Amino acid sequence: MVPMQTCKYFHQSRPTSFPLSNIKVLLLEGVSSSALNEFRAEAFIVETLATALSEEEVMERIQDVHVLGIRSKTRVTATALGAARRLLAVGCFCIGTNQAAKLRGVPVFNAPFSNTRSVAELTIAEVVALARQLGDRSNEMHAGTWRKVSRGCYEVGVLAEMLGMRVVYFDPLSKMAIGNAASRASLKEVLESADFVTLHVPATPATANLMGAAELSSMRKGSYLLNNSRGSVVDVAALAAALRSGALGGAAVDVFPSEPERNGDGFATELQGLPNMILTPHVGGSTEEAQAAIGLEVASALIKYINIGSSAGAVNFPQMDHPEDEDSHRVLNVHHNVPGVLRDVNRIISDLDANIKAQVNVTDSDIGYLMMDINKEVSNEVKDALKQLPSNIRTRILY
């Protein structure tokens, strides 16, 4: 007898190929309780740890885990994944991702938008603080110095355009302007016209050192640079030089090319001790609201993948989200993207006289993700045959 389980992604109670109460979830680094609640509602077994783990510790803990949840400090390396015998998916409860799992058939889900408001709020706060040199005045007061000055300080009102600010932007992809924001044809045009330049880009080869010496020299004299995106997008040495020379009026940096694995002393950067320089330890998205939203978003995506095979939202997997047919069995196959895969798959289907109710195959440059809803009588035979194909990476079946 296969036990009956209830899942919010199913329309009614139905048998499952692997009892949900046997699914093991390991959440590291104090992932929000919103994620914990989602997993427990599915009857998953959940273990939580408040801290990050080293590679060796991950290898020890991951062996029998089906779902691993991490934040920004834990690194899930290819070596660590080699110890994972049952891992189905990884959840990055942050913006950053680790894609070493791809060729092992393990999708990685993250939450790219859940902390947008928190980062925007920090950015606005820093705009005001830089315009008033609040960081310097605060440091002086802590050191016992009273220095009431106004030179180089400017008024900034309430919020963005409502602050009285005119917003211009550049994006290599065509984006519809919001409000009165105005698009510019190039980054150089933005740098030449903006008093405050804020960066909102991912870490890619194209954005590495996006703001180097040439770009910084294109900024208006006395203007300000804010980087709350990725540490690799700014040439830190060039920024430090621009601040020392007075070319820039100040800067705020929340992300760094190299960041400590754990909280504590010993952090060093060329930006320390510079005038009107706000340094924060990668806390742009670190609000209670953002963490709760991230927990809910990532946990929901992981649950949907476990229960119906949806890869929607995975950062390292072809995107698939097909409605479930409760009168069939769903076979999920991750394979190397090589010629002839569907030919081999359909030969298996034909030889076993299987009835396909739905077949969807999506690919990227490396792998393909195949989802088939077929008649129940031959589903196990189809699954076993797919596992024998040279192209196979992982095959599982959902009842």
Automatic annotation (TrEMBL):
InterPro entries: ACT-like_dom_sf, ACT_dom, AHAS_small-like_ACT, D-iso_2-hydroxyacid_DH_PdxB, D-isomer_2_OHA_DH_cat_dom, D-isomer_DH_CS, D-isomer_DH_NAD-bd, NAD(P)-bd_dom_sf. Gene3D superfamilies: 3.30.70.260, NAD(P)-binding Rossmann-like Domain. It is an enzyme of class 1 (oxidoreductase). SUPFAM superfamilies: ACT-like (SSF55021), Formate/glycerate dehydrogenase catalytic domain-like (SSF52283), NAD(P)-binding Rossmann-fold domains (SSF51735). One of its GO terms (molecular function) is (S)-2-hydroxyglutarate dehydrogenase activity. Its EC number is 1.1.1.95. Signal peptide: none annotated. CDD domains: ACT_3PGDH, PGDH_3. Keywords: NAD, Oxidoreductase. It catalyses: (2R)-3-phosphoglycerate + NAD(+) = 3-phosphooxypyruvate + NADH + H(+). The keyword NAD applies. Pathway: Amino-acid biosynthesis; L-serine biosynthesis; L-serine from 3-phospho-D-glycerate: step 1/3. It holds the Pfam family 2-Hacid_dh_C. The keyword Transport does not apply. Residues 330-399 form the ACT domain. GO terms for biological process: L-serine biosynthetic process. PANTHER family: D-ISOMER SPECIFIC 2-HYDROXYACID DEHYDROGENASE CATALYTIC DOMAIN-CONTAINING PROTEIN-RELATED, D-ISOMER SPECIFIC 2-HYDROXYACID DEHYDROGENASE FAMILY PROTEIN (AFU_ORTHOLOGUE AFUA_1G13630). Belongs to the D-isomer specific 2-hydroxyacid dehydrogenase family. This is phosphoglycerate dehydrogenase.
